[in-house]
Design brief:
By secondary structure, the protein is α/β, with parallel strands linked by helices. The chain has a domain of 126 residues: Dihydrofolate Reductase, subunit A, CATH 3.40.430.10. 25% of the residues lie in helices and 25% in strands. The chain is globular and about 45 Å long. The two termini are 14 Å apart.
């Protein structure tokens, strides 16, 4: 276990701390208050801070594709998945495509094709959905992949992404997607930012959805701290 206390962590060191092993890997990244809230007034931003945004940016830079639920895209006001020139250069030097691909999980396809996350994307996004959902104008701005009948089959969806060359996947939520990925046994790692904030009752947890067959134990890989925020990395 590594413990890095207050002080500046250079970008290369931060990248090394969050590198994933070779081969397929699915990482979750979430933030929570001290009392377990996943949001404040429906948004995760009040729980965050500059250091959290730094880690957030590094994790996006390291992934092949970013997987999020449709509700998170709407509620958090997602923008197109862009990276600055330095991070694009790093990806190119490390054998990655210039930009990660945005993947949205949506059973109802109730997404606005004009939202910047879709319409302004530097590479064509992917939407994982179920059979019978009508893509409508979404097909103009995204690749639609149908996996599952009554609901989205996440295992089949992740397999379809692997077939397209997306080995390292990052998920930023929401809670239903977190819980469903966990229940399906697809999660390899959780990066959790613990905010020094008591949000009070009312806000939901960072995970929801189907129950697990049994609790799953992960190993603590490192702990970082910056201005009261704790950054925990647990993995298989």
């Amino acid at each position: 276990m590594q413990q890095l206390w207050p002080g500046v962590v250079a970008e290369p060191d931060l990248i090394d701390l969050y590198r994933t092993p070779p081969g397929p890997w699915l990482r979750l990244n979430f933030v929570s208050s001290l009392d377990g809230a996943g949001h404040v007034d429906g948004r995760s931003a009040p729980l965050s801070g500059p250091a959290d945004k730094r880690v957030f940016g590094v994790l996006r830079m390291l992934c092949d594709a970013l997987v999020v639920g449709a509700g998170t895209v709407r509620e958090e006001g997602y923008h197109a998945l862009r990276l600055d020139a330095d991070r694009r250069a790093w990806r190119g030097a490390n054998g990655l495509r210039e930009y990660p691909t945005l993947v949205i999980v949506s059973g109802r396809l109730d997404l606005d094709p004009g939202q910047d996350a879709l319409a302004g994307a530097p590479v064509r996004p992917i939407v994982l959905t179920r059979a019978g959902a009508d893509p409508g104008r979404l097909a103009d701005v995204a690749e639609i992949i149908t996996v599952g009948d009554g609901e989205v089959d996440l295992a089949a969806g992740i397999a379809a992404l692997r077939e397209r060359g997306f080995a390292h996947l990052l998920s930023e939520g929401g809670p239903r997607l977190f819980g469903s990925l966990t229940a399906a046994g697809l999660v390899d790692e959780l990066c959790l930012t613990l905010s020094p904030l008591l949000a009070g009752p009312g806000a939901g947890r960072i995970t929801d959805g189907p129950p697990l067959a049994a609790p799953e134990r992960l190993t603590l890989r490192h702990v970082l701290m910056d201005e009261g925020l704790l950054f925990l990395r647990h993995a298989r």
